Amino acid sequence: MQITGLADSTPIAPHSAIASPRPAVSNTEIVRPIPVVREPVLSHSSFKKAEPRQRSERLDRMVNVSLALFGLLLGAPIMLVFAALVKLTSPGPIFYSQARVGLDRRRSSRQQTAYDRRTRDLGGRPFMIFKFRTMRIGAEKPNGAIWAARRDSRVTTVGRVMRKYRVDELPQLINVIRGDMNIVGPRPERPSIFSRLCDDIAEYPLRQQARPGITGWAQVNQSYDTSIDDVRVKVRYDLEYLERQGVAEDLMIMARTVPVMIFRKGGW
Asked: Which residues contact 81 (CB under 8 A, 6 or more apart)?
């Protein structure tokens, strides 16, 4: 279920990643400029700064944890096979972790977590996302973080298969159990790129009013991002999701995610 298509970084061992506390996000990350097409921001009804549709935090948590546990149980054979293939075909660890920006409770009227206002506001709560490694080690060192492209030379042979079928996203079910993510929600972005996108797209921070997800309304309608214009379209879908969010909406999006995975729609 890969959506952002960014290069792999910060390899870790699976057991140490899960056991570690939520780390702070490094402020030394170097990011290559993202391709920008300067256009006026288009008006859209979903860009109204209204509160998103309210939903039960307790019910959502119960549903998401239950589905994540079921998904891990069901997907365990597939994950074991690809874990072995990654290890056997490419030097380096099986998994990697990467800092992402999560839910922004400061923007929510139903704030439940106390924040230290002396800390730096990253636009949402930072967390470490888990994935199967799909790129060779050191893929970002020459140019920093850039979007993946079709026939990207940094992607390994096994990684290309995983990205097509979104298998590399399966470890994020652990993030769901930890409470970092939901099954459905806007895809989380890296702090440095998040900051850049907020400068280029005024409405981008509004999507942080929902907990980030493995899949989402934007992901079943759009393929990987290759430019700022692609992100603008996805922001519209994300804000539409906020207006309709709920268990029924999430189940519908999950059902639409299945053919996206099976038929490799939008996957590279």
From this structure: none
In a domain, 41, yes or no: no
Which residue segment(s) compose the domain that 92 sits in? Answer: 11-22+53-262
Within 10 angstroms of residue 14's Cβ, the number of other Cβ atoms is: 16
Does 69 reside within a domain?
yes
Q: For residue 17, what is the enclosing H or E element?
A: helix 14-19
> Look-up: residue for tokens 């992607």?
155
Of the chain, the end-to-end C-alpha distance in Å amounts to 11
Q: Quote the number of domains for the chain.
A: 1
Phi and psi dihedrals of 143, rounded to 5?
-125, 0
Element (H, E) at 266: none
Which pLDDT tens digit goes with each residue over 163-215? Answer: 889 999 999 999 999 999 999 999 999 998 999 999 999 999 999 999 999 99
Q: What is the C-alpha to C-alpha distance for residues 11 and 118, in angstroms, rounded to an integer?
A: 31
Token pair, residue 260, equals 């996206």
CA distance 176 to 62: 11
Query: Among 29-38, 147-156, 176-185, which range has the highest average pLDDT?
Result: 176-185
Strand partners, 182: 213
Residue 219 domain-assigned (yes or no) = yes
Integer Cα distance of 244 and 35 in angstroms: 31
CA distances, 34 to each of 99, 146, 193 (Å)? 18, 7, 8
pLDDT in tens, 140-151: 665 655 555 556
* 217 within 8 A of 241, measured Cβ to Cβ: yes
Amino acid at 68: A
Whether 34 is in a domain gets the answer: no
Phi and psi angles of residue 28, each rounded to the nearest 5 degrees, phi first: -110, 10
Residues 194 and 209: their CA atoms lie apart, in Å, by 14
The two structure tokens encoding residue 43: 């008006």
